[in-house]
Amino acid sequence: MTIDPTFRALLDDTRARYDQSRSRRERHIALIEEGQVAKANPTSLVEARLARIRGGRGASSASVERGLERVLGRNDLMSVRFLEDGWQTSRAVARIQIGQAGGAGGGYGTGFLVGPRLLLTNHHVLPSAELAAISRAEFDYQLRLDGQLRPGTLVELDPAGFYLSDRDLDYALVGVRDHPELASFGWIPLIEEQGKLLVGEWVNIIQHPNGEPKQLAIRENRVVDELDRHLHYLTDTAPGSSGSPVFNDQWEVVALHRSGVPATDASGGIVAIDGRPWEPYMGEHRIKWVANEGVRVSQLVAHIRSRATPGSPWESQVRSLFRTPPPAQAPLTVQNKPASTPTGGVPEADQGQAATWTIPLQVSVRLAWPPDGGPRPPTSAARAGDLAGHLAPQSPELPPADVEPSASMQLREALGELAQARQRPYYDEEADAAAIEAYYRPIDAGAGSGALATALGELVRSTHQRPVSYAPARQLYPWIDLHPDLRLRSIYSGQDFDPETIIREDFRIEAARSLRLQEFRAREQQLSEQQLALEEALLETALPYNCEHVVPQSWFDRREPMRGDLHHLFTCEMRCNSFRGNCPYISFADPREAVMDQCGRREGRDFEPQRGRGTVARAVLYFLLRYPGMVGDKPGEMPLERLPTLIAWHREEPPDLYERHRNAAIQAAQGNRNPLIDRPEWAERITFR
Fold first, then answer.
1. Residue 664, C-beta contacts closer than 8 angstroms, at least 6 positions apart
2. Rounded to 5°, angle at Cα 38 from 32 and 42
3. Which of 146, 105, 190 lies closest to 525 in space, CA to CA?
4. Which residues of the chain have pLDDT under 50?
5. What does each C-alpha distance from 154 to 115, 139, 407, 492 come to in angstroms?
6. CA distance 147 to 470
7. What is the DSSP string of 286-340?
8. What is the DSSP string of 20-65?
9. How far apart are CA 475 and CA 454, in angstroms?
């Protein structure tokens, strides 16, 4: 499959513009990090921005002062009215079902109403009136409070009534057919005036990424450059977000999101999120993005006005577009329930007067900085026992611990096994010595290196009689990976965690994955095994467990039994997991040249752990015995010439009580053992492949 030329041209255009503005963008980022937002903008624009905030409708002097502080980067507080206004604004945003010959099914985009019957999206989403005629807009495609999808409202587009587009500015303004519910969605006015935004401010995006239910991204999109026609901001929007409205904190639309800036390798090839070269079959959502680009609304308005000249087919509707204010939305109120009212389900409207305020949106919030996409510096949450900033974040979209009945039962079983850990011996040395003796009885300890490797490889394969699926919350955390104090510790940083917290967190993540996969299946009628596998891999990247495969999953294409093999799975907070990525291990000759973190050191495609080097070395060596020839044959994997590094780590940090406990517990779970833990002296005699 080849890359679509139009899609590639879009990415090349965006990347070229991003590269050309590099020096100015880097200056802006430096000023932003220093808290000098005003210096990153022209004085006239700063004055216009502050004047616009001061003139905010209904703003008190105190709120104006907070607004000024927020713009200048000194205050992150805002009124809860921000959420209410955002919820009302979101109603005008729709998922676009892009048509194809024979009906809908050509993919998804996002669009939003900007007038009573006009919808705005990208030109590359609806590049022609013919395509728009067989496409539809779906409003209210989002989650309810109970986690279920609410029924969306499908509205037909009317390009015969109005269709205006421009390839260079990448916009399409399309008519919408009348519908009984259309007026209830309101619309988002397009404002031409300056002063809506400064470089250094956060922007917010309401979107349908990859065709998913409506989502809101706040506090994770910072504007780092403003060009003549475009804005560049650092965020994590995904395919399907094309055509999304980009807002300032006053919910004024400031840009039309058009494309991401893809990461590229030295040859200019696009890079996937797992570091491999991106191929079209992976889907756009597997591209690694380094920044995003939107078209400035002031430029869109000027262009639309220029096309609506007297006598043009767009004149009357464009004039009406900029003269008709959106209808006033009824204020949302929170329904006060009696204490005896059940809390389950979705609250209904208050039959007396007002409607219940519900926010069925997925909200993604990022407070971390810097904006370069690189490793984040450790925070004060890095002290022992503090989970904030280390575990996978408990996002609002993650279901509570009491999820599906089957998952609830599995959670109870995992917590029950954890409770039993306090009553059972951590390690029975005498019993394990007997188990070791029996396990290696078939092995000729005096055999040559090749014969010894072959015999041990066959032993660990043949005794791997009970492969387990990858489920660390059930298989790893309750017993196998506990340390002698019955705590869990990150393999790379040594950070210790309460095991119950980790178990509950991973169950919430598992529930969120299941929900997202259910939504994906619901909207994709015909799925190949390859498409499903790619979507599962994407979800694992977006919602990772607090677990590390010391042999990265991408090296063996996430296949079983490798994926669930407990010998190379270890507790690892998401921060360290992300920092390492899928880099092979190395010992840096000059660590000062490497990027350092509490998790270890990283430079380019290489990683050296801060802690646990002997443990991870033995896990990798086990993998080479158990799965000979499986890894090391592709660029970026563990090359065999690095075996001396692993052997050295193994020798310098011999097995301890924790590893002996793990080895015995894993044998009980899946049947085999790691010979490098039981017979450390064999490591330098074995020929690994």
1. 427, 428, 432, 435
2. 115
3. 105
4. 1-2, 57-61, 63-64, 103-105, 333-403
5. 18, 6, 34, 50
6. 25
7. GBPEEEEEEEEHHHHHHHHHHH--TTSTTHHHHHHHHHSPPPPPPPP-PPPPPTT
8. HTHHHHHHHHHHHHTT-TGGGS-HHHHHHHHHHHHT-TT--HHHHH
9. 29
pLDDT for 449-492, tens place per residue? 899 999 999 999 999 999 999 999 999 999 999 999 999 999 99
The per-residue DSSP string of 53-98 comes to HHT-TT--HHHHHHHHHHHTTS-----THHHHHHHHHHTTEEEEEE
Q: In what order do the strands lie in the sheet with 136-139?
A: 153-156, 136-139, 93-100, 103-115, 118-121, 171-175, 163-166
pLDDT of residue 632: 77
Q: Which residues have CB under 8 Å from 221's CB, separation 6+?
A: 202, 203, 204, 205, 233, 234, 235, 237, 246, 292
d(CA 108, CA 242): 9
Task: Count CB neighbours of 573 within 10 A.
Answer: 28
pLDDT of residue 83: 87
C-alpha–C-alpha distance, residues 404 and 57, integer Å: 46
3-state secondary structure of 459: helix
Q: CA angle at residue 683 from 681 to 689, to 5 degrees?
A: 160
Written as one string, the DSSP assignment of 419-458 is: HHHTTS-S--HHHHHHHHHHHTTT--TTS-HHHHHHHHHH
Q: Token pair 């994926």 is at which residue?
A: 563
Nearest 10 degrees: CA dihedral of 494, 498, 502, 505?
A: -130
Number of H-type helices and E-type strands within the chain:
19, 22
In angstroms, the CA 676 to CA 483 distance is: 19
Report field, pTM of the whole predicted structure over 0.85: no
The residue whose two tokens read 């660590």 is: 591
Q: DSSP per residue over 647-658, as a string?
A: HHHHHHS---HH
Residues 6 or more apart from 409 whose CB is under 8 A from it? none
- Retrieve residue 529's tokens: 């095994």
Domains, the chain, ordered by start: 5-88+190-299 (2.40.10.10), 398-684 (no CATH)
The pLDDT score that the predictor gives to residue 314 is 87
Which among 676, 552, 559, 682 has a CA at the least distance from the CA of 621?
676
